[in-house]
User: Fold this.
Amino acid sequence: MPGSHSLVKTISALILLAGLPGLLLQPLAALESKKIYQLNENSIFQIRVLNRETGKKSSIGSGFIVADGQHIATNFHVINKIILEPDLFYVTYLDKNGHEGELRLVALDVVHDLALLASDENLGEAIVTGDLPPKGAPVFAMGNPLDLGLSLAVGTNGGILNQTDDSRILFSGSLNPGMSGGPTFNENGEVIGINVATARNDISFIVPSKYLNSLILSSKNTDEGSSADLKNEVAGQLLAYEKDYIEDLLNETWPVIQLRQLSLPGTISPTVRCWDNSAKLSANALFKRYQIRCANQNHVYLDDANKFVGDLIYEYYWLESDQLDTVRFHNLYQKLNKDQIENNLSEDEVSNFNCDTWFVEITSEEFKVNLCRREYVEYTGLSDVLFTAALTGHDNQGFFITFIMTGTDFSASLSLVKKFLENVVWNP
Amino acid sequence: MESLILEIKTRGLHRYHVLDKSELSIGRALDNDIILSDPTVEPYHLKILRDNEGQVELQNLANVNPAKFDKSQQGKFTLAMLPIEFDLGRISARILSRNHRVEATKSLASDDGRMKHLYGHWGWAALLLMLCFLSSGLEFYFSSYNTLKWDELLNFVFRESVLNIAAFVFSLSILERLLVNRWEIKPVIISVALIYLIYQLLSLLVIELMYLFSSNTPTSIFNLAWYVLIVPAAISIYLIRITHLGQRKGILLAALISSPFAILAIMQNPSVDLFLDDFSSSANYQKSLSPLNWHLSQRVSIDAFIGDAAKLEPGEFSD
Assistant:
């Protein structure tokens, strides 16, 4: 029937039209990434830290042209060797044509792991920054993974992470070593962040570009300094950040958690996450233990060897037994009293610990308290703090509080410890 | 001519010869008057000559390892100069008069025939050994936090006390055999067991002292004192009083035997370790916890603690 034949044709056309956007969209995403690559490949470099004596690369990363075309943005942890040993190391860029040139450091944002480098020559077209797209939108990270040449990784925007103090965007794509310092683009080809770290497959982190913008603005008012000035600058930024961080923590109202007979500070900040850390006991164990571990996520990286500061860790450990006599119980209790700071720093990076012991009344109970402190070699005023408190005077109940802060201001950390202890409540 | 005595010193009992002839030859060859079979002694090594006035002359005959004696007298000695000491190769000897005083006898038994001291009593040895095994068992019990398993207990006691005590008893017995040519198992067992028990008791005391003073110093001092002073003293007392070794020899030998342990203890001492290595990434804070909870430090408030803690300086940088 002519009428029914027309209807079939119309319906077929409608079905075809409905499917057309789907057909078009797939090749459209591939074009976007290709276009982004092509538009920016001349503005993204490999950043190399070279040893003056050997002439060889000591570390590599990525960077891209910003501002006036003579500046390159990268990560602080990529180039920090030139601050620690300026006589031995220097930094260069390498473009896709193999052209190399030396760069000098002009500004730092250690907390957000950013560095601004400058060249004496014009390097090319600067890349502009833009807004973060909605969560789930595709984003494109570029850099030089594993010294294999410029590459692009596609992922999605996972949003700004409040547990990192809003200093990281979650990138659901694969960043690899060597891509640190490279740009991540939105679909408009604007930089929304700078590659900084990867956790595991398709979980990576990007520093929001607003921090780069601030750094570029602040660099206009600063002069380049000597190595000692730069180390002091690093220390100063870290200390200032830690003081602000601790002040924010002190100003928060802390939620309370219960652990047996104690009310304790819980998740004291959006940057902190708490987990049950109670290990499984053997079936023959004559005691019970319960452990909560809380830690923040906003690491500040010092170098490319996974050394970082900015840790805030606190742990609660409850121990009890109704089957062990007090001597056996205290032998076990003492054996468990062994917390340390596990950041594997060497004698070139930190001093020895200095520790002291007190007996402190906390919530009408007595605790044996130890406090240990060490300083950083290169960054004056920066300290690692280890605080432990062990409940005393109970025959078969024990409780540990451990509190660790790395790369912090010692006085500020004591204020935090004080508030902690004042918020511990024993419920008889 | 007054006869004299020639004493040849050996590890065990010394050899004595009567010098009643005017001429005496000493050497390794079998036609000498006195034969010394040591390879450092020449076949014809020394001649001892006597005259009617009692003068003694030593004549060296050896080219290799010539006899060593006081050459200022040109080898001629009067009776007033006795005892005359000399060496033949590595053999030490001396010439004594017959009237030379000997040491007082060291009694093994009391006047009524029973053992004067318990070092000769098997019952005492067995009792001390049982106490050692019991203390080891208690150590296991108090440091275990799971349901007690007898096989684990026995394993621990065997490893920590039986094997250790057996090793020390064996070593010291061999040593005694080499020194004085005798086996003295009973006194060795008793001495080793006593030292083991004293160590166990003192260790417990030291842990409490650490808590009392809130300091790791008691354990550092104890470890050093134990291996550097107490163990050498105990061994030297044993060698002098039980084995009847000379005092100087006993002390030197005791120091030699205990020196590896002393050196190890010194090297492992945290203060020395830090001095040598200069850096430790560990925080060496006071970790002891005590059921008695006796401590000299005053209890303070949180504010007082924070005020005091603010004065805490960081540790030293390494060189």
In short: Chain A has a mean pLDDT of 88. The two ends of chain A are 91 Å apart (CA to CA).
